[in-house]
Amino acid sequence: MPRLAVDVFDRAENAALAATETIGNRIIVSACTRAVEQHGVRPGMTLGAALALCGGLQTLPRDPAAECARMNAIAAAAYGLSSETAFYGQDSIVLEIRGSLALFGGRKEFLRRARMVFAASGARFVFGIAPTPRAASWLTWHCPGRYVWFADELPAALRGMPIETLTQEEKRLRQLDRSGIRSLGAFMRLPRTGVTRRFGPELLHALDQALGIEPEPLALFAPPQGFEAAEELPLPSGDWPRLAPLAQKLLRRLEHYLLRRQAATQRLECLLWHEHEPATVLVLGLSRYERRAAQFLDLLQRHFDRTALPAEVTALGIRCGGIHVMPAENLHLLDGRAAVEQHWSELVDRLAARLGGRQLWKPGLRADHRPEKMGTDLFFNAGLSHGLCQGKNKSVPIFHASMQDLTPLWLLPRPERLEEREQRPHWNGSLELSRLPRRIEQGWWDGEDVKRDYYLARNPAGTRCWVYRDRAEQRWYLHGVFA
């Protein structure tokens, strides 16, 4: 699924949208729609280069949780085609289909059925068929639509591929380029002992896996089942110190269950049974996928501390249904950002458990070009894949990257009318205006129509501000100040 990172946002193929991620101090395009590719934008480009090629580009940060959920849904659908299904990276799934061909009536019928299954998932996909998983993956990226059914055809199919197929490491690519090796065919002609000595064993190992000389073990996908466990207390109690050991025991069982399946969850329930009262249900929601018993136990204690029990607890149970298999993370997440994100998520979860999810808010954006209407409040809603969801306004935030340098973070509560002298606006002196305005005409549908031309401005003291001329009133206003 080469466009999985943008497919999860469910936009039209002709939308000028790209999904981005931050690597180091650069913002990189991870995936983009076909309309953006027609302007020359490609994954791996910096955001600045992409905006230079496509001025109307809209960007959204990658949503790993949504991608994980979509991959699980696609893998579950693919499981109906082959019981030997596995994740292959963050955007690919491999299926062993030899045993399925006869079941579905041959190659042609199987491919027709597979296209129907994957098309129903909503993700754009390409197929590659080869006797090995790595070769099939390479075919999808460099020869989409090519099918290699027999192992003796693999060398000829792989020879024409660029050497970048084998490795993305820049240092290794420069070394290969200096040696005149620019294709897999040139690499395959080198003596094996010399290859290991000059370039290390990793490249030869990957090539041997693609050719089927060495095996490539994969963890097979299995549709996750729900987890449910309960035990009675020796004596009824309403005190957390007496409930904690049993809760810890059950949560450790849940942790082992998730580890065996390489899975995690964002939501689980703790059921507290009473002798003559209905069971009390504590719902634990997390801002990211989790499987550690210690984290679950900490959140459960915080929920318990702010819950009034109708009676003493006679039994305790843990129930978890929303389980997701977690694909391997990108290697660039090992630079320390993953640990920072984990600590931040744990803090949010603790605050939500102690205060309640709707007590946590953060500023956000919504789809309105009027500056005073762009802001909205987002509240934490535990257990959702995005961690944060919108409050009263449910429109999807639209973020235009090229507008960020034109809009100040600090907006006045109400635009301030400016004095005019010699047909120029004044604010602590005469303002020097940018040449090209940014015109906003919006709001005719809700009775708050605006017609404004915004300018970047600077006063004699050097303060940069944001002013506009109301085209209906023919007056100047100050709307924001830059730091």
Task: Tell me about this structure.
The protein has 483 residues and is α+β, with helices and mostly antiparallel strands. It has four domains: 59 residues, MutS, DNA mismatch repair protein, domain I; 144 residues, no CATH class; 99 residues, 2-Layer Sandwich (Dna Ligase, domain 1); 75 residues, no CATH class. The protein is 32% helix and 26% strand. The protein has 16 helices and 21 strands. The strands form six sheets. Strands 14, 17, 18, 19, 20 and 21 form a six-stranded antiparallel beta sheet that branches. Strands 6, 7, 8, 9 and 10 form a five-stranded antiparallel beta sheet that branches. A hairpin with a 2-residue loop joins strand 1 and strand 2. Helix 11 crosses helix 12 and helix 14 runs parallel beside helix 15. The longest helix is centred in the middle third of the chain and has 21 residues. It is flat. The two termini are 42 Å apart. 26% of the residues are buried. About 7% of the residues have low confidence.
Measured as a percent range, the helix fraction is 25-40%
Using the CA coordinates, give the radius of gyration. Answer: 28 Å
Outline, from the CA principal axes? flat
Main sheet properties: 6 strands, antiparallel
Strand content: 25-35%
Span between N and C termini? 42 Å
Q: Return residue spans where pLDDT drops below 50 for at least 5 consecutive residues.
A: 329-337, 382-405
Number of strands: 21
Q: Give the number of helices.
A: 16
**What class would the helix/strand composition place it in?**
alpha+beta
Mean pLDDT: 82
Q: How many structural domains in the coordinates?
A: 4
